[in-house]
Each structure stands twice: as C-alpha cells, then as structure tokens.
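Researcher: Next entry in the queue.
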Amino acid sequence: MKAAKFRVITIVVVVILFSNICMAGGLMGKNASEIIIGQWVTDNPPDIRNLANRVYVLEFWATWCRPCVKRIPELIELNNKYSNSGLEFISLSQDKSVQKVRDFVQQKGINYHVAIDNGTADWFGVEGYPTVVVVDHRGKITWQGYPWNSEFEKAIQKAISVGPPPLLTGVNLGAFEHHRKNLWGGKGFLKSYRTIESQLSNHSQPENSAAAQVILQAINEGIEQRIRKADRLKASDPATAYNIYLELVTKYGGIEAIRPAQKSYLELKNLIN
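Model: Structure for this entry, 273 residues:
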C-alpha cells in the first residue's frame, strides 16, 4: 500500500516538474527572438519580419513526438477560434525532412503555418515537446509552457484583448472575405487592397461595389486613427510614435492613406536611430 502511494506521489511530482520545465527560463516579458526558418512547409506563410502589433503563437514540435500529435486537433480548433482576431499560429517542426512534414500536415489537416525550425527552439530554451509560446503585439513573451496547460488559451485571450484589433474587425467583407488575412497588413495587403478598390465602380454587381466601399473606408479610417494617435505622442513619446508609424508604413505601404505616416516616419527615423 505504501509502495503504491509512493509511486503515485512520485508520478505527481514528475508531472509538475515536467509541466514547468519551459516556464523556468525566465523569458517572460522579454522580447521574442527572431524566428529562424529552415524552410516553410505550408503555403502563404506570414511575413515573419513584420509581426509588429500582431499577436502570435509559436509551437515547437516534431512528427515523432506522440504528445505533439495528440494535441494537433486542439491546436487546429484554437486556430479556427482566434484567427479572425488577428492571431498568427506558427508551428516550428524539429524534423529534418520537409517532405515528411508536408505529408504529415496534409494527413492531419493542419490549418496553421508550419515550417522547419532552424535554431529558434534553442533561443527559447525548449527542453520538451510540444512547447508553445505566446507573444503579444509588442513582441514580448507573455507565456511559455505546454499546450495542455489551462493557462495557454487564457494567455492567448489576454494577449489579443490588450492588443490593437485588426482594421476590419467586425466588418462584413461579403464576397471579399478571402482577402481578410491579407488586409490585416504586410505581404499581400496592397494587392488585395487594389483588387477591392477596382470593384468600387462595378455596376454589374452593386453588392460588391457597396462592400468594397465599406471595406476601404474602414481601412482608411483605421489607419487615420492610428496616425492621429502617433501624432499626439510625437513630442512626449517619440519612440512609441515612431513604432506606430513604422508599423503602418511596413504593413500598409503603397496606399494614399499612409502618406502622412510615411512622412512622419522619415522625420523621426534619424532622431530615434
């Protein structure tokens, strides 16, 4: 009886220690490392150089890791649940074979971004798989641990709640829904913006013309609001103002609404740098 009790206690202690391995690195609140990709496995990857003001999750995993495989349906569900809130889910495989991971992604129906890692796990001090990291819109690490921890989803929710919402949150995109992610900014933004802009005078499909007007107005007004915020901070907090201008220029460059931000960004660039 005592032996059985001892085994139970030992198992509990091991589980607790195992669950806290990744939390012991003291990375909370620090700037997240650059994501180093060996090769993307899935199509249409995010622009990892431009994740400013974007909440994202990093997952470190491998196809040979049974706990990793077991958690995939839950991660798919989380991606479905929060992707429209601006969350980027980036899964970094520790496998060496791109084809093996690509076949695995198709087999499991994985709907988030997957790439072969090239050393990012080392910076995060990952010692067990799967490990997940939540990074907020400021690029700060707010949580790191295992995906079965109940605090994981809470950390995602908190990071999303305190960050700036995507420009088109709550806007019905109608026939242009498939452009939503591009319209969050960055790679693909300008092409989608121009495509929608070309529909403003589509008299044969007035519903598309009306939707295009609503979408472009929401984008332009959202950008103008952020420019006004940066303008107010220009004198008192130039570093924060600079970061806002930089985000706007890198995510939404090429459209008329961004010109004031471009000008202010260049003015502050020499001062900050």
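Model: Residues 40 and 115 are 4 Å apart (CA to CA).
Researcher: Noted, moving on.
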